[in-house]
What we know:
The protein has four domains: about 10-65 and about 190-230 and about 255-265 and about 280-435, Glycosidases (TIM Barrel, Alpha-Beta Barrel); about 80-165, Immunoglobulin-like; about 450-670, Rossmann fold, CATH 3.40.50; about 675-729, Sandwich (Immunoglobulin-like). The protein is of the alpha/beta class. It is globular and about 75 Å long. Mean pLDDT is about 95; it is low at about 465-470. It is built from 18 helices and 37 strands. This is 1,3-beta-galactosyl-N-acetylhexosamine phosphorylase. Its EC number is 2.4.1.211. Keywords: Glycosyltransferase, Transferase.
Amino acid sequence: MSYLKGNCKKLKGQVTLPTEIGMDKEIAMLYDKWGCDAVRDCDGTKLPDEIKKLAEKVYSTFFPTRGDQAWATEHKDQAQELYLMSEYNTAAADTLEIDIMAGYFDQQFQIDTVHDPKEWWEVIDRTTGEIIDPSCWEFDKSTGKVIISNTKKYHNYTVGFLVYMVWDPTQMFNHITNNWGDRPHEISSDICHEETRKNMLKYLEDWLNEHPDTDVVRFTTFFYHFTLIYNQLGMPKFFDWFGYGSSISPIAMEKFEEVKGYKLRPEDIIDEGYYNNPFRIPSKHFLDYMDYQQAFVAAAAKECADIAHRHGKEAMMFLGDNWIGTEPFGKHFKKIGLDAVVGSVSYGAQIRMLSEIPGLKYTEARFMPYFFPDVFFEGGDPLKELNFSWLAGRRAIARKPVDRMGYGGYPSLALKFPEFVERVGKICDEFREIYSNIDGDKPYSAPFKVAVLNCWGKLRAWYAGCAGRASGYKAIYSSGQVEESLCGMPFEVEYISFDDIKENGIPEDIGVIINVGAANTAWSGGANWLDETVVSRIREFVHNGGGFIGIGEPTACQHQGKYFQLSDILGVERELGYYLNYPRYGQLSTEEHFIMKDVTTNKISFGEEIPWVYGNGKDEKILSMSGDYVQVAANSYGKGRSAYFSGFEYEPENNRLLLRAIYWVAGKENEMEKWYSSNINTECHAYLSSGKFMVLNNSYESQDTVIYYGDNDSMNIKLEPMECRWFEI
């Protein structure tokens, strides 16, 4: 075994630099220092002519739905729309007046008075769920109020109503974040209007003729923004990076009916005010709408990509902003014919979300932080966020690398932090070294696959932790953290849905199934656990030797005296107050267990963990407890095994805990110490075809570790803080 000295300093390219007007010398310096080969503009900036000449590749941003503001201003009736739900209002008399815009930002929305409210709106008695007949309510345009007659006293009522989106959410966010002052508010037009669609395509043709030095058209993104709703104070009220709410309109609903054969209700989109967020178990109507919109968007996006190609340009999509309808793992995405996808990256799972997209020439990660004033301010610490983002992303790159990297924002802000600038240069070199050494080789993986089971399946692989700028949702905390752990582990990971199991069974190469999330959400499954085919096939899978790991509230849905429907497999159940009369006798196991061997702390942190879980199996072993309740349990079921965690938080000790649990439930403990690092702060990744392996130090301190390689060989090494070291086999 020999140390492979890096040649990263000789490598250049694969890095995209954001630019800024009036900083030609500074941009040229960063371009050389970071070894860039491409430059790009971003929202609110333009590419300087001198910098265009410097770069091998020029990325230019094209906004399909808000690029032509002259058109948008002249055709406000073709602006994008969405359904909003009014606040709950209680009737204290026979008549109730509802100010439908109360609680919403009037600079973002205007009530749609073009389309007949009686046809397109809904008033609902939220106490009973009854739809109120349109003859019993009126809309007063002058006041913006809906007046409901013959109300039932002390019932709650809401109005589902249409609004035009008169300020694009991304431009609004950037405007507020960067203090853009009096800059005009931009409107996004809706291509479901044929007139707007034709204008958008002509505008793209004209734009391409005006940008002959552009090599890559960076579509940001295409047509429909994820759902971002602001309140009356101009602050976020509802945020859903998955949301399809901003893609709805009367025309879309009419076209949907033509394609799918039935009519949508406003409530199919409003969804009791949940707006079909990703925690909701998707209804058939919403899944049909997603499929319709994805097909519609793909067809229109293909027209854009084809035009770019005719002009000799590459077509790149930004996986963010107006990405709705372009689900990269959906069945329609490949029809677009894109060359590349770029996305923002704060953590490792987002790398896999990009790098796993099929059918592209290349993928690119824009690492955090953005060079924006919310991070780059006097007394701020952008270097901390930079290192965090890189260390998290590097683990995933080791398993499946993106092809390029870059940053976004204003370089003038970054230059105020010299240590940050130096560190970015080293990260760029390290990225190129890793990519060059991997050279397309697949990393060593365990002899079985790991499947993550939820309602979304492959459609939203590696998406669970996605929220704005990587801020997590508490109810899905464990799901995102498990993905973050898995993204750098030596496993091939597949995502499967309940429908997959019902229609196709469980693939033979799956060794372990993981179900994680809060009860009654799309991530854990909710009522899907009442399907006899699903539970029977999973029981058969485990009984015959498969592994099952449940985290949080796995298989949870109250039914037939059980809350965890696979409590027999898990060996644990959760108390809801129905079985308090039954004594509990669960005790912490005193035997050493394979899963717990690397646990050194007295108290394991599981983040947003679930309380009141107790052991109920004959063969379960309780490996960790919090008070009287289970945190970690292991169980045998036929020839198979299971493990349960009350929650999960990605950190070194828990990462190793999950790794051991996966190997144990798969019955492959003897396979774990192959291309393996003993220190929990370090990881080993081997590329056997190319005869190389690397060892990563994922911490900010020096680490000593034992590396197990080959069949029975090992060696001791010492790694510097954050070091990545390569070896030849």
